[in-house]
Every structure is written in structure tokens, then in C-alpha cells.
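Work package 3, deliverable 3.1, input record:
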Amino acid sequence: AQKVTQAQTEISVVEKEDVTLDCVYETRDTTYYLFWYKQPPSGELVFLIRRNSFDEQNEISGRYSWNFQKSTSSFNFTITASQVVDSAVYFCALSDGNNDMRFGAGTRLTVKP
Amino acid sequence: DGGITQSPKYLFRKEGQNVTLSCEQNLNHDAMYWYRQDPGQGLRLIYYSQIVNDFQKGDIAEGYSVSREKKESFPLTVTSAQKNPTAFYLCASSIWKLRGDQPQHFGDGTRLSIL
């Protein structure tokens, strides 16, 4: 059975601080895909990144970076120099070869000015 | 602009009433999904559909029904059998591939409350 755990329910930081959102997953499949989504106050989930299980290369996109480590079953997300517009709920998700996508409970990030 | 449109944004249900949430997409995606979001629980899958005239139950299908008569549309009916319908409902769509590597695109959601 697949499972995604986001242990941090809420995080609050001051603008310009760096923040890391943790994601730990469980799966028995050797091929799987990991995703991060952002849910701003407007409600829709916005796709941020996808990573497959064979590609452990870390990725950086502007102020966002992702650290995928199969050894610890983690796919953590770091925002550098956070901004107020980063305030949202962030979801980590796992999809296996059967197209079964499982979401974590989400981490609510508040960035204060 | 391509995207997913959910309506209405807010919906109120009286006891014993069925209500239908609309979801339309113009992304030409084969697959569509309905999720329920409750505080602190993430998203739970209600139903999904890979192709027209076919759909599958998700983890929490009881008390809900769907139809997929057109590729663009995937309405969700919350029936009176759903005893705790108050939640935020999200519709999503994606390209369908067996390996499950496609991201899902989401609508703005419908917030359903009981009167």
C-alpha cells in the first residue's frame, strides 16, 4: 500500500527565511512518481514538479529546490528566501504504476512580512 | 485559455437532497477525477474516469455518483446517502498513461455545506 506522510502540519516563517517542507513516502513498487503541488487560498492545486523513481538528481527552479533521496524515501522541498506569495498549503503526492495517486495531508506555510 | 471549470463555487444542501457539482475541462484530457478535501486529511479520491462512459470508484465513493457522457464533462452528484457531505470538492484531469506519470490539473473547487 502506498502512503505519503507530511509530518509538518503548519510552518510559519518570516519573509526571506529559507524553509524546507518534508515528505516521506512508502511504496513497494520499483517504478513510481513523486509530485509537489501548491494550493493557494484560491483553492486550486498547482503542479510544481514531478520526479520519477529512477532519477535522484536534485532540481532547482528559481527559489525552489527539491531533494529526492531513495535511501530515506524522502522528497523534500526547500524554498529559499521565502516571500509572502509563497504562503499556501503544499501537498506531496505519490503515483505508482497503476495510476493510483496518493496525497499527503499537506503542510500549511505562512510567510509573514 | 485551457483549463478546468468547476461550478458552483459554493453550494448548500438541505437534508435529504441530492446536489450535483459540475466539472468541465477543455484540455482534451482523457482522465478526470473527483477528490474530497477535509481539513488536515489531504485529498481523498471519490471517483475517476479514464474514458467516456467508464468510471471507477475511488476510496470514498459511498454516497456519491458520477457520469461521463462527454470527454469534457464529469459531474459529481452528492446523494442524500452521504451523511457528512460538508467538504471542499476538487475536480482534476490528466493525460492518461498506464505508468501514472502524468500530473493532474485541478479546478478551483466547490465548497459544499449543509443547511
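The mean pLDDT of chain B is 92.
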